[in-house]
Amino acid sequence: MKKPLVGAVAVALLSVGLAPATAVAAPEKAVKKAIDFAGTVALSNCSGSVVRTPDSKDSDPALVMSNGHCLESGMPGAGEVVVDKPSSRTFSLLNSTGNKVATLRATKISYATMTDTDVSLYELDTTYAQIKSSYGIGALELSPDHPVKGTAIKVVSGYWKRIYSCNIDGFAYRLREGEWTWKDSVRYTPSCNTIGGTSGSPVLDTETGKVVAVNNTGNEDGEKCTVNNPCEVDENGTVTVRKGINYAQQTYGLTKCVGIGNKIDLERPGCTLPKPKS
Which domains does the chain have, with CATH numbers? Predict the structure, then answer.
């Protein structure tokens, strides 16, 4: 996984878009929403973002998404699921240019795991409406749809204040790293050469501006299925190692598991997130 970092110096990487000089109406793709740092957050050791589902209300307590391996309590073991655990963790909220505008605070870890996926969702003590009113920043929306191979994406790291651009190269049936196994992982094309500290970054579809995945790992040394060297395993058990290639975990499944009031409901129809062991 992309190792959590502590105390690194952030490096800003800003991009400027130029509008066409002609008065002729631009094609739809030319007027798509620009992707920047607004709504992303920096954790003490990782990246993240303020997110909402299509059904979230402005009056709901806001959610921050990152990786399961970025938890302040350490990495959950294989098979471990955390639900509704009190937390007072803080997050630095960034504006469009990557400047910190506020400190947000959690009340609990709503959900976290490193089984099947690598995700954490924190519930904040502020609502989406309060964040918007105070800082002019809206949440990023989770797409309810499975991403598509070839889609142009951006990985937006609040920790490093850096944006990576590439495409979805495909999907790994199973991605194995150390004791953990993840399902249907997103594989990037090589230009998304993410580094430690980008863990938890939202992965956005450049066409819709919606979140389709959460950045989490990459094969650093060409080793096979070891920590920081995930391997792909297909339906037949064949193992493939792709040195230097990075991955993310899809997030559309989260939208099926968030109910009224932004509360995690693992019994909702269509929700396939792992449940705590009884």
Answer: 35-142 (2.40.10), 152-252 (2.40.10)
